[in-house]
UniProtKB/TrEMBL annotation:
GO terms for cellular component: cytosol. The lineage of its organism: Bacteria, Pseudomonadati, Pseudomonadota, Alphaproteobacteria, Acetobacterales. This is 3-isopropylmalate dehydrogenase. Transmembrane segments: none annotated. Coiled coil: none annotated. PANTHER family: 3-ISOPROPYLMALATE DEHYDROGENASE. It comes from Acetobacter pomorum.
Length: 371
């Protein structure tokens, strides 16, 4: 999974829309610190995606940006989405930028860790005792399923009314590769995988369960495997989340369940992610890192967004793409210490804590790194 680096590491930074640029600014301070204090040499290129690219170039992402992503050692992505473009056809929506990047780079495994910081047990929507120590890894498949299956589209029926169509498609190979990522991860954690689908009503779910069972029996018999229907999983995440270690699931269910899980950690603003592809024969390992939250246009430009998910996404980049475990640990510890000190952005605010904005939170994390 890792690339060895002797020369300057090429990083493509794509802040995107809404709160994307303002939280990315805080990551840039963390990067500056690493460059000056830890001798890390990063060759950073920044470009436009999403609504920002639509405004400048008329497309959500240019081919040139995809090429830059291929040339980079890793991509750090912000968020895309802007209500200004809600009226345009699907192929021109800002969100196409992230979907296209995942597809073009073959980024099929989206790792979404839902970990509760001790200082935030009171910010969770569940009782502190239910979430203390919670550490779940949701592995969401990201280049297949209902997001990409055909047929799709909106068609007009003979009576003039319309029909919207999306199709859930999964092949054996697509399920196998994401299942392997989940089992591999489980071996480094608590050795348990829960595979989630809707095999009681969906053909693709039936195949999903069959293939995961097969991969498990042939390659990972030492890992404990369970199966759960997606609706039950949503309920169990709220009832008893600590029963889970690694959850592996399809594109849509993974999207929904990880948003749900984020609230167990206190806020959508806390969850980072890594989306990984396959290692190529030439050693190339495509990977993109982004917070699971979107562009939050309602709070964009107000300086109140939580930069932690974006900063933790960069820590995942250090861990998975650059094999900089110590630096990744330092960033995660700095976030933990700042939360312990009582600083809170609005989304994780609770009684008796000190409410701060985006830049104060970012500066506090860098100050903590300096200690
Ligand atoms: N940082 C995540 C982001 O920008 N999300 C916007 C979005 O629409 N994502 C689609 C998806 O994650 O499937």
């Amino acid at each position: 999974m890792m690339t060895a680096q002797n020369t300057a590491i090429k990083l493509l930074v794509l802040p995107g829309d809404g709160i994307g640029p303002e939280i990315m600014r805080e990551v840039r301070h963390v990067i500056d610190w690493l460059q000056s204090r830890r001798g890390l040499t990063l060759d950073i290129t920044e470009d436009l995606v999403g609504g920002a690219s639509l405004a400048e170039y008329g497309v959500p992402i240019r081919d040139e940006v995809i090429e830059k992503a291929w040339a980079a050692d890793a991509v750090l992505f912000g968020s895309v989405g802007d209500p200004k473009w809600a009226h345009v056809g699907f192929e021109k929506r800002p969100e196409v930028a992230i979907l296209k990047l995942r597809q073009e780079l073959g980024l099929f495994a989206n790792l979404r860790p839902a970990k509760v910081f001790d200082a935030l047990v009171d910010a969770s929507t569940l009782k502190p005792d239910v979430v203390r120590g919670l550490d779940i890894m949701i592995v969401r498949e990201t280049v297949g399923g209902i997001y990409f299956g055909n047929p799709r589209g909106i068609e007009t029926l003979p009576d003039g009314s319309k029909r919207g169509i999306n199709t859930e498609v999964y092949t054996t190979a697509e399920i196998e590769r994401v299942a392997r990522v989940a089992f591999d991860l489980a071996r480094k954690r608590s050795n348990r995988v829960c595979s989630v689908e809707k095999c009681n009503v969906m053909e693709s779910g039936l195949l999903w369960k069959e293939v995961v069972t097969d991969v498990h029996a042939k390659e990972f018999p030492d890992v404990e495997l369970s199966h759960m229907l997606a609706d039950n999983c949503a309920m169990q995440l709220v009832r008893n989340p600590r029963q889970f270690d690694v959850i592996v699931t399809g594109n849509l269910f993974g999207d929904l369940l990880s948003d749900l899980a984020s609230m167990l950690t206190g806020s959508l603003g806390m969850l980072p992610s890594a989306t990984l592809g396959a290692v190529h024969e030439n050693g190339k390992f495509p990977a993109l890192y982004e917070p699971i939250h979107g562009s939050a246009p309602d709070i964009a430009g107000k300086g109140i967004a939580n930069p932690i998910a974006q900063i933790l996404s960069f820590a995942m980049l250090l861990r998975y793409s650059l094999n900089k475990q110590e630096e990744a640990d330092m960033i995660e510890q700095a976030v933990s210490n700042v939360l312990e000190s009582g600083l809170r952005t609005a989304d994780i605010m609770s009684e008796g804590m000190a409410r701060v904005g985006t830049s104060v939170m970012g500066e506090a994390i860098v100050r903590e790194l300096d200690k």
